[in-house]
Amino acid sequence: EPEVTQTPSHQVTQMGQEVILRCVPISNHLYFYWYRQILGQKVEFLVSFYNNEISEKSEIFDDQFSVERPDGSNFTLKIRSTKLEDSAMYFCASSEESLAGGPSSYNEQFFGPGTRLTVL
Amino acid sequence: DQQVKQNSPSLSVQEGRISILNCDYTNSMFDYFLWYKKYPAEGPTFLISISSIKDKNEDGRFTVFLNKSAKHLSLHIVPSQPGDSAVYFCAARMKTSYDKVIFGPGTSLSVIP
Asked: What is the dihedral of CA A33, A35, A99, B62, to 10 degrees?
């Protein structure tokens, strides 16, 4: 069964350093997402990406964050200068189509296993 | 910002009995509601959904009920199995922001053999 994969599973970095989290979405999916979950808190939407551009982003996704699809398979999240509060589990997700199917439909988002980011 | 609430952080149920997980929401703009299940060291897995135009959706052992007037939904699992032990997230999608899924804080379900 196809699945979303993420690397690395755990990333430790020093405050102020740049990190790149990598994801390989399911191959025929066109819509990509990043979420994060700070320890003990809820899963939070960061950004969605389609057709090589951001389609939506949350207030969390500030100028320190960027996303890219550098080739046909990878989808990356870059944090330019990490802060202590960026420590969290970061989940990548993908879906075949947009979630905008109207009130009678929902296109499932498939999540990866996550990358645990620890900022020291 | 507690648009999706799950007031029970944990729930224990005997194997074979019914598990009922509750969720409340505050935003009338939600048009689709979702339940995700999460095991440790894995990402959330979609379980079942319900459109705001329906009041019930059933898939095998899982049934979701929606009470729009009360802004309340619940997930029923019957019969509960030990493999159902996981964290269950209630989530919702907004009419005006289809890409964004808003999650609740989760309820940890333990099914005791």
From this structure: 130
Residue A100, pLDDT > 70, answer no
Yes or no, beta carbons of B103 and A42 under 8 Å apart: yes
Residue of B nearest to A34 (CA): B100
CA A100/CA A103 separation, integer angstroms: 8
Cα atoms in the 13 Å half-sphere on the side-chain side of A93:
31
Whether A26 has a pLDDT exceeding 70, the answer reads yes
Q: Are A92 and A47 in contact (CB under 8 A)?
A: no
Closest residue of chain B to A43, computed from CA coordinates = B103
User: Taking a C-beta distance cutoff of 8 angstroms, is the pair A34, A102 a contact?
Assistant: no
Determine the Cα–Cα distance for residues A67 and A77; give it in Å rounded to an integer: 5
Q: Other CB atoms closer than 10 Å to residue A92's CB: what's the count?
A: 29
